[in-house]
Fold:
Amino acid sequence: MLEKIMNMDRRVIFILVALVVIFPTLVPVRMPITVSEPTRNLYDFIEALPSGSTIMIAFDYGPSSLAEPEPMAKAVMQHCFSKGIKIIGMTLLPNTPTLAHKLMRKIAAENNAVYGEDYVFLGYRPGTLQVILGMGTDISSVFETDYENKTVDEIPMMENITNYDQIDLLLDLASGSTTETWIIYANTRYGLKIAAGVTAVIIAQMYPYLQTGQLIGLMPGYLGAAEYEKLLNAPGDGTIGLNTATYAHLLIIGLVILGNIAFFIQRRREG
Structure:
């Protein structure tokens, strides 16, 4: 038995991992979730906004990392649409527009939101700094047309939105360093309020900005999405993702412990 544990076929491990990934997806077993202060701060900020307010969501993640930011985007957009808050979508990454546009369309349809009145997707323009600084002066000077090639000045919800002065919050959903760029050039220069939802690997570098007040809220990976869904009382992809990751980590920890126990028992017997 000890030898079998020590020399476990990798295919057995693959099967076990597959099972713990499939199980929480099919069976509604939910891990207990305690909402962190940064996530609650973002929720409370949006909850306090009056109907007709406007937030901008920057979809700054690519196809390879959408698993974590996308559930955050869904939860926040559902919250905004339910409160009558208008959403301007855009991205600083060239490989994201199609994904972001499709997601906005999907969530809008689920909430009966109308394109051009309740939300708009501007798309992508090259030149990160020029885009951020340019929108601080005049959004239409950077995005003359939206992603659907409609003139921005002719879109109803954009009639009274000229620059950051009419935007109540910028939410950056990021898998890289774009949040710091938004903070440096949009928050510091124009006073734009910023929140972020980031992948787990870059959470640590965001906390200093929470301490300085340059981020009003932060969603950390799957956990942040699950926390936001809990506040909405609407479990979704974030909750499923958190459960899957939890079970997978528990399996790995269990295998490591079991392997070490078998190793030390076998070494003692050989001694």
